[in-house]
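Thread title: Can someone regenerate the structure for this chain?

I was given the following input by a collaborator and told the matching structure tokens would be attached. They weren't. Posting the sequence so someone can regenerate them.
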Amino acid sequence: MANPNRPRPNPWQYLTYCYGGRLPDTMRDWVIEDVTGKGATARLMVRTVIPALLILLPFWFIPTTLVVHLGMTVPILLPFIYFSHSQNKVWRRHVLRKHGVDPSLLDQKERAKKAHIHDAYVERFGPRDPGSTGTHDI
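Best answer:
Regenerated them for you:
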């Protein structure tokens, strides 16, 4: 998102994009950076929690104690947070596919970030046997 020459969505396009819309092909690079760049997981989680907070906000106007307010809202909010985290990668792949980008790009970027871990493993233990199934069966 640091490239100032890359086209950015206007506020309406951004809002519709955040909640399932498709951006024009001219913004494909912006979408790739948004979905695979630094902070992508946190951005998606925030975008998921915002509608939940808007739905739960009226409960806080009911005159009652803090314990009851928390009891009405937290059990609903926690699954939103949990599922936004657990389905994060699935949703980001979906967004890439929707915008005409190969969803495996998500894995390629993650592998590139963790390449040093793999290299350290190979240096310490050697490369894995290509004929191995990867199981620990004896």
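The mean pLDDT is 87.
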